[in-house]
TrEMBL record:
Active site residues per record: 444
Biased composition (Basic residues): 369-378
Name of the protein in its database record: SAM-dependent MTase RsmB/NOP-type domain-containing protein
Signal peptide boundaries: none
Organism: Baudoinia panamericana (strain UAMH 10762) (Angels' share fungus)
Amino acid sequence: MSLYHEAAKILDDVRGERVSIKSLVYGRKDWKTDSKTLFALATEAAKWSKVLSEVLERSGVLKVEKQLKPTLAVVLVHDLFLSKRGIALPASHGLNLAVSKHKVRLSAELTKARLRRGFATLDALRASINGRTSGPSGSDSGLIPENSVLAKRPRWIRINTLKTTLAQALASTFAEYEQVSRLSDVLEAPPRDAKILHIDEHIPDLIAISVGIDLTTSKAYRAGELILQDKASCFPAYLLDPQPGDGDVIDACAAPGNKTTHLAALSTTLPGETCNRGSENRVIACEKDATRSETLRKMLLLAGADRVVSVKARQDFMKMDPTTPEFANVKALLLDPSCSGSGIVGRDGVGIPIHLPNVDAEEGDTNVGRKRSKKRKRGRDDDPKTIPSEEDTAHTVDMSEEQPNIEEGEKLKSRLANLSAFQLRLLEHAMSFPTAQRITYSTCSIHAEENEHVVIRALYSAVARKCGWRIMKRHEQVEGMQRWHLRGHQNAVGVAFTALANEPGIDAEPLRPSDVAEVAEACIRCDKNGKDGTMGFFVAGFVRDVGPHLARLDAVHETAAQSAEADVDDWSGFDGD
């Protein structure tokens, strides 16, 4: 199966199974096409699908070329007009011929579609579809109408303090921007190049600008000084609050690396300056997938976090032995496991719906191919010789988190049960690290099954009780998180406890209403499509009071460290001449 058949299959699966492009591309290892190329084409074709479906319907090509299924036609026409290299198949290939011989007609319909939307050039339409500008008043670019959810969200940018400071960024990259005190000013501003910014009041070094502005070509972005990261995605590392010198931190599910670089930035002594290794924490980043491990390494290098982060490539966190000496100084863990992704906005089939042409739609003024005289032999698109090893499709691959959309019925119920069981095992494993004192657990999910329910089960697990883990209460949280207004759902906490207490063999003391309220207040939520401009998100912190068991372990490690220092002091070095 080649690039175009595989991209078409992915788009069909996204529509039929309500899963994300990214999860389909990177969740399988048997694609013949390079993953980045496949992901780029599928993503861009999805974004252009409304326009291209209109072009195909009005041209009538699908009525003539019976071998072209609607999804396959969309990805082929995309590359015919929108890829620098055109269709990545020989000119004589059957699929290439089936589309390219109608190029004049298709081009005319694409021009009409562009003009109907009020754009003078194809580049202007492209900028609108990519979200960099808004369409003319009253127009529909095919992706982000001005009244859509995406148009009402800001572009969140975390200033990477491993390389610069907020003050330096404001004085350089954002020197021409007007600072506004309210996020709503950014949300209500016209998306078309509105140069205003809002400094976030909860997360340090985080700013919001108009979603219509593209900074990916800026010098600061390319230098790793700016990191595009949703505000909610910044909560886990900030809530964990790793202070320099506190000890090592594990990021259990690290790729693509936004939270890892945030941990690294928070763990350093002097943001923006060369760090003293003796006064900073070591961040241990685990990623079991080989491809994602390489992505993680590249991001860490670009962000300047490679000097702080130790990457455990192809390492399954669940298979790590917490008692080994390597983890003797681990004081905190960040857990952001696989989840349903139901809180993601914009890449889950809600913000970018995939449109397909109607084969039976009426054609335009000119009929297509009515005098087709004879059949021709069609080449096979699955011939490996026709598949380039690498294709420049002129797409920018977005490495931000992307997850499946909301599903329904029994399938969703089963999937959430499987996910929450895995999430609980991951959390229990984190609680088994002997010297750990803090854990953050987060998901980009709106479902209580993955959020409050997992928290309650973890609190009542054997390992939590044995090792003294409890919820991090609201008043114990870092200041910015204390002030965050959206908290966990009390009803979800109560339901989770009732279900747990009714299970055989579970010895759970009754929860008082005040306990339910306290746990719910300790949990943090973000609304999907809400006025705060974030995706749907959940995070909870766990803390471990230093009891006799932990104190003994700390004493052992302190004694070992002192012994090592003494050995160094006793050694006077080699005698010189």
